[in-house]
From TrEMBL:
One GO term describing the cellular component: outer membrane-bounded periplasmic space
Family: Belongs to the bacterial solute-binding protein 7 family.
Organism lineage: Bacteria, Pseudomonadati, Pseudomonadota, Alphaproteobacteria, Rhodobacterales
Species for this entry: Roseobacter litoralis (strain ATCC 49566 / DSM 6996 / JCM 21268 / NBRC 15278 / OCh 149)
Protein name: TRAP transporter subunit DctP
Classification via InterPro entries: DctP_fam, TRAP_DctP, TRAP_DctP_sf
Gene encoding the protein: tauK
NCBIfam families: dctP (TIGR00787), TRAP_S1 (NF037995)
Length: 338
């Protein structure tokens, strides 16, 4: 080999090494905390996000899911993302509310009455405004929405079909004022507990029950420690994928767009997961021995007590009665007055 050929060959190797190292420096493997375990709606959103991110970035970027609260309680992950020590988290919106109160509108009882309502609200101007509020208030940006379905009450003691049946039960709720006040409106004082401690709380009998959607009850294997399910459907659970705003701002404009587009794909996949799987998962719960009942009178008693006591109390924190009416209008419902 001539000197020239050897020189060109070694230069080519050096150049390609430089390109590789530039590529590697930019390559990201985002760490995503996930509150729920495998088989959950949260996991479905996460998997769809990783797949879309890899495809849209031509394999340059990926992300790794850390399931089942391995990276801490859902509320802790918001703090960590805010300071940039965690890239992303998928968690229930009720666990974002303490950091950004206006998203509480999605946890007000009996506001969202269907998956279609949830899609309309999250993907329209209201969702955009709440996304901006969480950046401002909490230092995290919502980039995808998980639609997990209606939260259903479970307990280990007895069938519950009325507010009267609920009395005497010790029910775990997230550390969320709206949910605490909802149970108070139903006459009991619930026990606030982090999500990551809930299975153990149910198993040891510290609490008798909790509420979460079918897909979550199944993924978390709550049927091992809970027998009775009541379809109170008071909250349609929405569980965003958030990214640390600090991490987001460190990305190039092109990578930011890729992350946002991957988030859109994950949102669509989440709605599809719920449409495809919810009935099947309900059947799994029955096969595992759970008893599922509907409340008497179509939930009227639960609805009346919760909406009358809880909605007005939180108008201020969600941005005023006008905001409440904008949300109701968006989903074709009648306005409320003071
Ligand atoms: C909670 O109950 O704290 C959450 O809804 C749990 C979850 O993220 O699934």
């Amino acid at each position: 080999m001539s000197y020239f050929t050897r020189f060109m060959a070694s230069t080519a190797i050096a150049l390609s090494a430089t390109f590789i190292s530039v590529g590697m420096a930019d390559a990201k493997n985002f760490k995503i905390a996930v509150g729920d375990s495998g088989g959950s709606s949260q996991e479905a959103t996460g998997v769809a996000f990783v797949q879309a991110l890899e495809e849209l970035s031509g394999g340059a970027h990926t992300a790794t899911l850390f399931l089942n609260g391995q990276l801490g309680s859902e509320q802790d992950t918001v703090n960590e993302a805010a300071i940039g020590t965690l890239d992303m988290s998928i968690l229930a919106i009720n666990n974002v509310t303490p950091f950004s109160p206006t998203v509480g509108v999605f946890s007000l009882p009996y506001v969202i009455l269907s998956l279609e309502d949830a899609e309309k609200l999250t993907q329209g101007p209201i969702g955009q405004e709440l996304t901006e509020n969480t950046i401002e208030d909490a230092g995290v940006r919502i980039i995808a929405w998980t639609y997990t379905g209606f939260r259903r009450l479970t307990n280990s003691k007895k069938p519950v079909t009325s507010v009267a049946d609920l009395q005497g039960l010790v029910i775990r709720v997230p550390k969320n004022e709206i949910m605490i006040d909802t149970y108070k409106a139903w006459g009991i004082s619930p026990t606030p507990m982090a999500w990551s401690e809930t299975f153990a709380g149910l198993q040891t009998g510290v609490v008798d029950g909790q509420d979460n959607p079918y897909t979550t009850i199944n993924a978390m294997k709550f049927y091992e420690v809970q027998k009775y399910v009541t379809n109170i459907r008071y909250i349609f659970s929405i569980e965003p994928l958030i990214i640390s705003e600090q991490v987001f701002q460190e990305l190039s404009a092109e990578d930011q767009q890729t992350v946002l587009d991957a988030g859109k794909a994950a949102t669509a996949a989440s709605a599809q997961f719920l449409r495809d799987k919810e009935a099947e998962i309900k059947q799994i719960l029955l096969d595992e021995g759970m008893e599922i009942s509907d409340p008497e009178n179509n939930e009227e008693e639960f609805i009346k007590l919760a909406t009358e006591a809880v909605w007005p109390k939180f108008y201020d924190s969600i941005g005023g009665i006008e905001k409440m009416n904008a949300v109701l209008a968006e989903i074709g419902r009648a306005p409320v007055s003071e």
